[in-house]
Specification:
The protein is α+β, with helices and mostly antiparallel strands. The protein has 2 domains: 29-303, no CATH class; 331-384. The protein has 9 helices and 11 strands. The strands form 3 sheets. Strands 4-5-6-9-10 form a 5-stranded antiparallel beta sheet. A 3-stranded antiparallel beta sheet has the order 1-2-3, with no helix packed on it. Strands 8-7-11 form a 3-stranded mixed beta sheet.
Length: 384
């Protein structure tokens, strides 16, 4: 793919040549250079790399073509969770539950919507990415497989759209983590065939891992240190990096790197591999021209700018560039100033001279009359 940027008086014209698309033209991505670059940045590629965290913090942020993935680690602790018997039940209670390290993988779409999220346990702080992940023993969590595309660890949440008030990644991330931490109540009625408590019970784990009230009682009595015992938790096994919809006995252990870079779904209608994974992985094809153009069209809808595809790119010869005006030289500017001052002085002198003439002309009749009277008087005194 070849790209060029041409500036004119109206803003940015970005011409993108893509093989097989008859040289489409993408125009007017901003009213000036800064806005244009900010607009393009929203669909650009970004990878923070793995950020080692001691305790709670962001582990990774990746983005491409408007899609964003945020990975967050929460330190071990006793956490408040809202838990009811069924969806919308009035008997939902808030309990404090001991948990090991929690990993949240949150996905956002080009229109700023929260696609969905997955959560996992880990027995150590993330430093490399090859750390194995464990099933979470909470309701509304996919362990055995749920829906066509939902990945293992997926959490069933409603009202995915991020509130408009939340603009930054930090605000969106905070909102998503709160939702997945039980701000939206978990319930035993939905997904009981695949959720955490039933999955752990079927694998013969202690009852305090599977029962809400016993879990809360143990937490109240002993704190959260016991939750760091790896023997209590079930490591996740999947069919493969690009097939991680459910637990698969005998399959490879799911690591954080696999969960991040593999093909997964963050909601029901989410079958596609993320564009940043296509870029980061050498074994899959890069984003297609169609995906790139779709991202630009979403950007158009967000920014209310004109993004169109034409058969022929705009030629450089057709672009009217701003006229260049050579600045005045300091010496010439000084001479011009001196000349203007001299001209002004001459004009001022001429005005003064004209005023004198006018005054003289105004007094002339009186002077002439006085002179005539004096002459007459002198004439009468003369004796011949």
């Amino acid at each position: 793919m070849t790209k060029s940027v041409v500036l004119d008086e109206t803003g940015i014209h970005r011409s993108v040549t893509v093989p097989g698309l008859d040289e489409p033209k993408i125009t007017d991505l901003g009213t000036n250079l800064t806005e244009g670059l900010q607009s393009l940045e929203q669909i650009g590629y970004f990878n923070s790399g793995l950020i080692p965290v001691d305790g709670s913090g962001v582990v990774s942020i990746r983005a491409a073509l408007g899609y964003t993935q945020v990975v967050y680690q929460a330190a071990p602790g006793s956490n408040y969770v809202i838990w009811g018997d069924y969806e919308g039940s009035e008997d939902a209670v808030q309990v404090m539950l001991a948990q090991p390290y929690r990993i949240f993988i949150l996905d956002y779409s080009p229109n700023n919507g929260f696609i969905g999220g997955r959560h996992f346990y880990t027995m150590q702080s993330i430093f490399r990415g090859d750390e194995p992940l464990y099933h979470v023993n909470l309701p509304n969590t996919n362990c055995r497989g749920y829906g066509t595309h939902n990945g293992v660890g997926w959490v069933c949440l409603y009202g995915h759209q991020t509130p408009e008030a939340y603009k930054t990644i930090a605000e969106k991330m905070n909102w998503g983590i709160l939702r997945m931490s039980g701000d939206e109540a978990y319930n035993d009625g939905n997904m009981s065939e695949t959720d955490g408590p039933r999955f752990y019970a079927d694998h013969g784990k202690p009852h305090f891992i599977c029962d809400r009230d016993e879990w809360a009682a143990k937490t109240k009595k002993e704190g959260h240190a016991w939750a760091m015992n790896p023997d209590l938790w079930i490591p996740i096994q999947v069919e493969g990096m690009d097939s991680q919809k459910r637990h698969y006995d005998g399959g490879p252990l799911l690591t954080l790197e696999m969960a991040m870079y593999g093909k997964y779904g963050a909601t029901y209608d989410d079958p596609h591999m993320r564009p940043f994974n296509k870029i980061d992985r050498s074994d899959v094809e890069n984003p297609t021209p169609t995906e790139i153009l779709n991202a630009l069209n979403v950007l158009k809808a967000k920014q209310h700018v004109s993004v169109s595809v034409a058969d022929v790119t705009k030629r450089a010869a057709d672009v009217v560039l701003p006229k260049y005006i050579e600045p005045e030289k300091p010496v010439a500017k000084k001479a011009a100033k001196k000349k203007a001052a001299a001209k002004k002085a001459v004009k001022k002198k001429a005005v003064a001279k004209k005023a004198v003439k006018k005054a003289v002309a105004k007094k002339a009749p009186k002077v002439a009359a006085a002179l005539a009277a004096t002459t007459t008087a002198m004439s009468s005194d003369v004796q011949f």
